[in-house]
Protein 1
Amino acid sequence: MWSHLCSVAVLAGMLSLNAAESEPAAAAAPGLKPGGQNHSGFSVDRTRKYEDVLRENDEWIRKNYRHKYAWEDYIALLDELKNSDRYIVCPGRDFIKTFDPKKVVVYMRHDIDIDPSTALRMAEEEHKRGLKATYYILPTARYYGEQTPTGVRRYADMDRFYRKIQALGHDIGVHNDLLSMAILWDIDPLEFQKQELDYYHANGFPVVGVVSHGSGVVLSRKLNNTWIFSEFGKKGVYDNRGVAVEYGKHSFKDFGFLYEGYRIGHNRGTSDISGFKTGREVVERLKSFQHGDRVSLLTHPIHWGEQTDKR
Ligand SMILES: [Zn+2]
């Protein structure tokens, strides 16, 4: 069993958030007003119970979505990871410092997106098999908080739910949708991220990782959430109806993170959005990786479940 597990990470030192305290941005481009003027995009709601949030969310999913891959295929994926001694399976924080040329080292990444209930179900099955993953929570998702015209009011009670995932041995991470929020709410991305990370850290979630979300708001403008981070080399200014939305100015480290999942030191990757017809093909793809490969394995809870009559 040990061969499947990563050593427990001990974080050295505190994350640097100094960049979030830099002075306000000057006008970014001629003719554009500086963006990031809304300083209350992140707030907290302490009234709504997580059971109610999830009940409504599950009902909304049931009406509007179907799981494209069979749950039994997800179980087969986990069994492959557990039963073969080829793999070392890691959450993001461990993957960045786990190297073994005799193994396939797997970064197990879950972008929760819209479906936290299935995320918990995955977390439980992984826990049964001694597997650990990182679950990335999306601030613009309806379960996260009340989405208002000027920001999000985070449901504090959902922390009880996220703690269930964490208690199963998994990590919580941030699913970055900062460009959407800058466009929709005129937030300052550094400021918002500092507020959210401060909240996580103050409430018992030692978040160190971020992965970027493929948001419709962003993609429809031919932008990409990864571009907010300088590591992706896309520094620029988006003209948001006369207001500047700047991106690519700061490293993900300036935002308070140790890693970004698309730049986590992997040489191979596969996912449930790689065009496979069945979940079983994801399993077969995993088997094709070789010793020494460092693999990003990305799955989205919404894609896995019982195959209902909507099929
Ligand atoms: Zn996503």
Protein 2
Amino acid sequence: MVTNTLENSFDAIIIGAGISGMYQLYKLRELGMSVRVFETGTGVGGTWYWNRYPGCRFDSESYSYGYSFSEEVLQEWSWSEHFAPQPETLRYLNYVADKFDIRDDIQFNSRVKRATYDETSNQWRVELDDGTEAEARFLISATGPLSAPTLPKVPGIDSFTGESFHTSRWPQDPDGFGGKQFDFSGKRIGVVGTGATGVQVIQEIAKTAGELLVFQRNPNWCAPLHNSPITDEQQAEIKAGYGEIFQTCRDSFASFMHTWDERSALEVTAEEREALFEELYAAPGFAIWLANFHDILINPEANAMISEFVANKIRGRVNDPELAEKLIPKNHGFGLRRVPMETHYFEVYNQSNVRLVDLRETPIEQVNASGIKTTAEQHDLDMIIYATGFDAVSGALNRIEIRGEGGQKLKDKWADGPRTYLGIQSAGFPNFFTLVGPHNAASFCNIPRCIEQNVEWVTDVLAHMRDKQLINIKPDQSAEETWTQQVLDDAEQTLFPTADSWFMGVNQNVADKKRTFMLYVSGSETYRKKCDEVAANDYEGFALR
Ligand SMILES: Cc1cc2nc3c(=O)[nH]c(=O)nc-3n(C[C@H](O)[C@H](O)[C@H](O)COP(=O)(O)OP(=O)(O)OC[C@H]3O[C@@H](n4cnc5c(N)ncnc54)[C@H](O)[C@@H]3O)c2cc1C
């Protein structure tokens, strides 16, 4: 048990016990380091611990998402569906934690509020919400790209007297890995938000809700998930074929099981184009997004073609033509924001118990004791579900007061956008590593694939430092500037900057966030090669002493 003294001294402190923090702990233990993980929640799993809302599931193929480092885990664990639901994923992560017996080094119920670098001792001093302090030479954030929930900025949000939850704070099922079950029948439920989470929750609750009101600010380009159970035969193939599965991920743009069609959408005939679009629309997962013509995200004409194709699909699925138009995005092209994967989502709008409230026509004026009041009318509700997303990528880091050399705050340094080297360190913050940080390929990836790369790279640096008896690592200013500029220039080669999205740091509920590209779009394999090259060149761009 950690006490209130600086006897709490470790070689490394990790913040967060999701997939990143768990694996980093496992790897540093292998190096023989003393490690403490601090985690706000009461259990492991991160995203899959917090997001227990009805309908929550993967849009990565399950077997492409699990850890790849242990053959035993790969063979022992059997995913039940191609896109597993949240309780199964959380059960999986608990099984991994048990198998490697990692819980002893994790302190739950422990939110890190401050981390300060002490230049004299070359130590990071970490402070928890309850005032407990600990210190370590190395600080590693594993705080997650989508873990800092945001609520809409509307007056009266606390005055509602019914039940209301942000989807990532859905109450837990006390007896299992999922969320608390509610009986929605006969109830009037309001869902605010129609991003990836909103879509999952809407299509699930629409099955039983007395009345479901969907408060939509911006429609998104949703596409069918085509989930299905994994048969025994498929299970055997998956277990025998993990090598190939991970190689496919490794060779693909974003480490998913989908690789670009190398042709341009413009170089084929209209029939060929339509045929591929149809094939991908009928294929599972992100195929329509990431196995499409390679130029749909970089060429406006190609993008317009796929957008029109998907728009027509929506028109074909929603009975009321006027309503269909409201569900079709008009302010950005297909794939330029994260594509929500759906199962009969558009068909729910043909049901008599579902109603769309278009907030562009009638914005919310206030939340009050009995429900939501828009500029047009009062909607009395029994429950409000906020599927309003996250302060993405840098949000969880910004919620910690992180001070580096000269007392500089990371949040201030990044006020005009993140500045990093390899998305893994920031100048002026020695010995601090950001797993799945901004401008790191892991932020636009089938994330565990990139997490493993991030963690193994950091582990290798620390092993190198131990072997060479080095105690301090930080990026050169010039390496940071070059990397940051390169990331932003690469983004400009795509259409992503044309859309307001969390990729661009846009969240209307976070007032002071600058609009700038937050991810890395040159592909996870390019990123891996760059990281390997830097390591091979004696950690070029980093100053080590
Ligand atoms: C609903 C949902 C579905 C998703 N589906 C997919 C998918 O299908 N495929 C995919 O690739 N990605 C998906 N993602 C992205 C997902 O976040 C990553 O795949 C992955 O779980 C990230 O793991 P992580 O360990 O880096 O972060 P997280 O899982 O977010 O874990 C971070 C942990 O850090 C803790 N933490 C944060 N701040 C502090 C602090 N100050 N002190 C202490 N602890 C702290 C949090 O409590 C959390 O437990 C999804 C995200 C969401 C929200």
